Amino acid sequence: MIEDDIAFQKAVNHEEKLLTLCREKNAHIFHVTLSPDPTYKVFGSAEFGLRAMIPLAGTWKDDSQDIHATFLPLPGELVVRERTGASVSSGSMLDSVLRNNGINTLYLAGFETHICIESTLREAHDRGCNCYVVTDATAAFNTFQQEYFEKEILNHFGKRVTTENILAEVNA
C-alpha cells in the first residue's frame, strides 16, 4: 500500500540510525508487529474499517508479519505481537510493561504514520505519556497523509522530533 517509496526508504534509513543510537544508550526498545490467527478472529466480524479490510486483504499472512531483518530484536528488547488494533497498546501487554517500568516518555517511529503511529500517539497521550514522534523515521502510505498528520494532528497529542535533533541532543 506504500505509494511513496522514496519517503518510505528515507524513513527506514532514519529508523536504522535511531535504533543504533537507542541500543548504544541502552534505551528501552519495543518492536511491534501483529500476528493474528489465520482466521483473523481477533478482529471479529467487522463490516468496515481496518478490522474488515485486513482479513479481506490477507494482511499479515506468512512472512509479512515478521520484523524486517534490519530491525530484528536483540536479547532484552521486547516484541509486542498480540495487539488487537491500530494502537500498539490495544489489547497488548505494552501498557503494563510501561507502567511497571516507570516509562512515561515515548519516542514513536515506524510505519503507517496516519494509522498506527497516530492511534498509538493518541492513546499514549490519553494515558498520560509524553510522546515524541520521530517524523523522519515514520512514513505513511503517501506524502499527503504524512504531512497532514504532522501539520494537523501531532501538535495536539505530542511533539515533533527528528533523528538529527536526537543525535544532536545526545552528542551535546
Task: Write a short abstract of this structure.
With 172 residues, the protein is an alpha/beta fold.
Q: How would you state the average pLDDT, rounded?
A: 87
Total domain count: 1
Radius of gyration over C-alpha positions, nearest whole angstrom: 16 Å
> What is the subunit arrangement here?
single chain
> What is the count of β-strands?
5
Order of helices and strands: HEHEHEHEHEH
CATH class: Alpha Beta
Spans with pLDDT under 50 lasting ≥5 residues? none
Structural class assignment: alpha/beta
Percent helix range:
40-55%
Distance between the termini: 39 Å
Q: Report the sheet with the most strands, covering strand number, pairing sense and barrel closure.
A: 3 strands, parallel
Helix segment tally:
6
Briefly note the CATH topology name.
Answer: Rossmann fold
What does this structure look like?
With 172 residues, the chain is an alpha/beta fold. The protein has a single domain (5-171), classed as Rossmann fold (3-Layer(aba) Sandwich), CATH 3.40.50. Helix content is 42%, strand content 15%. The chain contains 6 helices and 5 strands. The protein has helices spanning 5-24, 50-57, 94-100, 113-126, 143-157, 163-171, and strands spanning 30-32, 78-80, 105-111, 130-139, 159-161. The strands form 2 sheets. The chain has a 3-stranded parallel sheet with strand order 3-4-5. The chain has a two-stranded parallel ribbon with strand order 1-2. Strand 3, helix 4 and strand 4 form a beta-alpha-beta unit. Helix 4 (113-126) runs parallel beside helix 5 (143-157). The longest helix is centred in the N-terminal third of the chain and has 20 residues, at 5-24. It is globular. The chain starts with a helix and ends with a helix.
